[in-house]
């Protein structure tokens, strides 16, 4: 029975992978949604969940950017050895606060823009 479920899940996954996403659905996480997570205040409902989602997203994009640079991509974000996770999250949150006009854009691009402004490669 377990093999049957695994096969069914694999087939469903292949079917979904073969179906192209509509162009307007390609950005799954916008700056607007990231801002909502990153601007949550202590005491608000779901504050812990929002804070965790904000930090996880920012650090995930940062790690992906650092990995890409390590693999030869152009340097856009050069973190000093003293950079901390909370500092990166605060940097991105402040950027989103200061640039409401950019919030409709892709969140990953905004994270990289914020971090490259704060931690440029020289």
Enter the CATH topology name: 10k-s Protein, Hypothetical Protein A, Chain A
List the uncertain runs.
1-23
Overall CATH class: Mainly Alpha
Count helical runs: 5
The H-and-E topology, N to C, reads as: HHHHH
Number of domains: 1
Q: Strand count, sense and closure of the main sheet?
A: none
Mean pLDDT: 83
Percent helix, as a range, is 55-70%
> Termini, distance in Å?
58 Å
Radius of gyration: 18 Å
Mass-distribution shape = globular
The secondary structure category is mainly alpha
Percentage of residues in DSSP E strands? under 5%
CATH architecture field: Orthogonal Bundle
- Topology, number of strands: 0
Secondary structure layout:
Layout: H1 2-18, H2 31-38, H3 47-70, H4 85-98, H5 107-118
Search tags:
122 residues, single chain, 10k-s Protein, Hypothetical Protein A, Chain A, 5 helices
Brief characterization of the structure:
The protein is an all-alpha fold. Helix content is 61%, strand content 0%. It has helices at residues 2-18, 31-38, 47-70, 85-98, 107-118.
Could you walk me through the main structural features you see in this protein, from its secondary elements to its overall organization?
- The protein has 122 residues and is mainly alpha-helical.
- Helices cover 61% and strands 0% of the residues.
- The chain has helices at residues 2-18, 31-38, 47-70, 85-98, 107-118.
- The N and C termini lie far apart (58 Å).
